[in-house]
Amino acid sequence: AVQVMTFGADRERTAALERHGLRHIRSSFTLARCADAPPRPTPHWPAGIEVAPYSLGDDDEAVHRLIYVEAAWASVPGHTYRDLNSWREAVRPGLRALLARREEAPVGWVAGRILEGGRGYVSELAVARSERGRGLGRALLLHGFADLDAAGASGLALDAEAANHEALGLYRSIGLAVEREWGVYADTP
Fold it and tell me: Within 10 A of 139 (CB to CB), how many other CB atoms are there?
């Protein structure tokens, strides 16, 4: 199957894709913190949560399991499953990560990096399903952005699937706004 991602506002290109039999299957957004956004809130950690910076090699198998099993990362349309080695390679460049634990078990993860242009970018945010609804994802995201700011980021952004309404609500609540839409087109019926 052919899949093509394109800038959502490029009407000529999307029309050309559709003329060639490709159909829109999903969208994702790049969200960025607006210059006029209110000050970023301070993270508030749920009771019983311990957080620490994370380096690859510390406990990769447990973190991988958190992301892909306990947080069900790949169940979100547009998120793909990566085996352990592929995941390590995907997060390795410039990794700045934080791991949250409850009773020594990983329950939350945020990973980001500073892109070549200087923008801080959160590439992964995962919270175990058993921990959701307690503010852990919000605290991880706020801490991840604060860490990127402290490292000299010239702005803050992330990508999110349009179908992930809970995540979009969280991102908007801390001052992120849609900067651009990306459409994915495929030759599937």
Answer: 23
